[in-house]
Amino acid sequence: MNTVTCTECEAEITLTDNVEVGEIIVCPECGVDLEVTGLNPAVVQLAPMEQEDWGE
Amino acid sequence: MNTVTCTECEAEITLTDNVEVGEIIVCPECGVDLEVTGLNPAVVQLAPMEQEDWGE
Amino acid sequence: MANTIVIKLGGTEGVDFSAICADAAELLRQGRQLVFVHGGSAEANALGQALGKPPKFITSPSGYTSRYTDRQTLEIFLMAVNGKVNSLLTEQLQSLGVNAFGLCGLDGRLMLAARKDAIQSIENGKRKIIRDDFTGKIEHVEAGLLEMLLAAGCLPVIAPVAVSAKGEALNVDADRAAAMVAVALKAETLVLLTAAPGLMEKFPDESTLIHTLPQARLSAALEMAQGRMKKKVLGAEEALQGGVEKVIIADGRTEKPISAALAGAGTLIQ
Amino acid sequence: MANTIVIKLGGTEGVDFSAICADAAELLRQGRQLVFVHGGSAEANALGQALGKPPKFITSPSGYTSRYTDRQTLEIFLMAVNGKVNSLLTEQLQSLGVNAFGLCGLDGRLMLAARKDAIQSIENGKRKIIRDDFTGKIEHVEAGLLEMLLAAGCLPVIAPVAVSAKGEALNVDADRAAAMVAVALKAETLVLLTAAPGLMEKFPDESTLIHTLPQARLSAALEMAQGRMKKKVLGAEEALQGGVEKVIIADGRTEKPISAALAGAGTLIQ
Ligand SMILES: [Zn+2]
Ligand SMILES: [Zn+2]
Questions:
Q1: What pLDDT score does D224 carry?
Q2: Quick one: closest CA in D to C154, which residue?
Q3: Looking at the partner chain, which of A22, A50, A52 has a beta carbon nearest the beta carbon of C128?
């Protein structure tokens, strides 16, 4: 079972089995959006903010 | 029956029935290349010279 | 330059490129200095369709829709926008005797943009991050290059492609590119030509056309604007904040679209 | 300009664009002044195939083979050559820190060409004239525009598209375009990079590589050259007659293709 540490509040979070790289999870302690950037070992980082469309 | 006058030697040339616009005919008198540029009425002009390929 | 007019030409929304080019030729004879910025998303979509790579749009969790420009889509975008729209517009102007000069933001680093680092999307109920997107937001326009071309007697025709700090080509929004170009050139006027008579109070009721809009009311107009018109209002705001005197959103489907806009047609924002 | 080197990059004949770009970046650091001219017929053929409009070749009564560029083919050519090859080459140079500036002969009327007025072909046994061809032969290169870009610190990257006196876009041969550019700039050297080690006495036997060829022997070399190599020899002849000091036909598939050519690889014609 994969566990990660929230980059904001340092809570330990257990990832579900079907989690994918690129997926956004929400920290159950502080509610921040975390992006799963690796799985073996599991790594998360603060997810980038949503942005409006930039292109033509 | 369509007849035209050679632009080079002024010979009268009788066109065949299946002649097309854009076709090149050879004057039977002077041997010059003539381009058929119209059919009703029939018109010919001196055909442009052959050129090598210019494009990429 | 106080005399300069930057004109944005919409893609294929019924906007009449030949009328715009003929009008531009006339205005140049009158001593005006012009710069064109064009779009091309419709051409890019059509080429993508024809090549079996239809455009992909992504809706974010909070409802923003973004065109997803992966590397292959970027190359199709470059072919359509730089190779077709820009080259044919330059050709059309040249055939009218106007010494047009087509370029994009890659050329001499004309338009430097920040690359969007991520898009959020929802796939099978999961929120995900997409990172291979090639769109950008312009941060700097190299005005000196355009001034050099103008001084050489050319009409710059600019495609909506920018360069990132790393040198990557990026798809950028043409309305906002036009605004940034107008600001960099200290242009007097920015004309945004589109397939509508201007901003409308109640879209699409053309009888509710707004003739003049003070800059102070722009945020209210942004709330009201529909779809693509939002980007034009954003562009107008950026241009005015950057020191452009006036922005006109006007109809690109009429006889002399630029002259008509300068003479009072459309929505004047200042 | 005595210091200037004009480099022609072949299309997709195995020529390594990234090695050429990296080599160019190094040469610029050494203070050389470079101009690129590229091809793109292979890219245009591939795009035409993908769009259901394969290239059409016409063989004339006396055996010349011409690519037939009708209006639709011209638009595909512009997308492939201006939108893909030129933009991606400019992007690649920018990503190496080289301030490249992509342009074609339409831009500011950089390359003015005579439009070919007719092609002879044989159809169903009849000799016919085709008049809607968009190819041209360059008659004038506006050196001032290139000098302006060079003075601004840019590396011009030129696509093989010219403009006719009427303002039409025309497909032109890239080897001969490179030669005309070199002449207009009074360049010291013209380097024609290709997928062969140079001119060979007995093609394709690479052991018969000709290391140096005096200008006087060029007409004999023209007789001997095969296929595309003929155009390179023609280009070399035009460049030398126009005052370019030396022409090098060299391998574009090696590590540092330009530096190697300048150091003696390939066929030196002078
Ligand atoms: Zn947390
Ligand atoms: Zn005769």
A1: 81
A2: D108
A3: A22
CB D96 within 8 A of CB D157: no
For position C125, what pLDDT does the model report? 81
Would you give the distance in Å from CA C158 to the centre of its chain? 9
pLDDT at D36: 98
B12-14 and B3-5 as β-strands: parallel, antiparallel, unpaired?
A: antiparallel
Q: What is the pLDDT of residue B48?
A: 85
As a whole number, mean pLDDT of residues D190-215 equals: 92
Q: CB D70: neighbour CB atoms within 10 A?
A: 13
Number of structural domains found in chain C: 1
CB pair distance less than 8 Å for D145 and C168: no
Helices (H) and strands (E) in chain D, counts: 9, 16
For residue B27, what is the domain's CATH number? 2.20.28.160
ipTM of predicted assembly, 2 dp: 0.89
Give residue C12's pLDDT. 58
Tokens 């080197």 appear where? D5
User: Which CATH number is C145's domain given?
Assistant: 3.40.1160.10
Tell me the CA distances in angstroms from D133 to B39, B44, D38, D108, one per residue in order: 22, 21, 22, 23
Coil/strand/helix, residue C46:
helix
Q: What is the pLDDT of residues D98-110, one digit of tens each?
A: 999 999 999 999 9
Residue C131 maps to a domain: no
- The verdict on residue B8 lying in a domain is yes
CB contacts, 8 Å: A22 with chain C? 128-131
Query: How many Cα atoms within 13 Å fall on the side-chain side of residue D223?
Result: 3
Burial class (CB within 10 angstroms; exposed 0-12, middle 13-18, buried 19+) of A1:
exposed
Q: Is it the case that residue D2 has pLDDT exceeding 70?
A: no
Range(s) of the domain holding residue C230: 4-49+72-107+141-164+171-269
Cross-chain Cβ contact C41/A56 below 8 Å: yes
Indicate whether D182 belongs to any domain.
yes
Contact D267, D26 (CB under 8 A): no
What spacing in Å lies between the alpha carbon of D64 and ligand 2's midpoint? Answer: 26
Q: Are C82 and D79 in contact (CB under 8 A)?
A: no
Rounded average pLDDT over C7-24: 87
The verdict on residue B56 lying in a domain is: no
Residue of D144, C190, D137 lying closest to B56 (CA atoms): D137
* C165 touching chain D per CB within 8 A: no
Task: With a cut of 80, say whether residue B54 has pLDDT above it.
Answer: no
Residue C28 lies in a domain: yes
User: How many structural domains comprise chain A?
Assistant: 1
d(CA C33, CA C4): 5
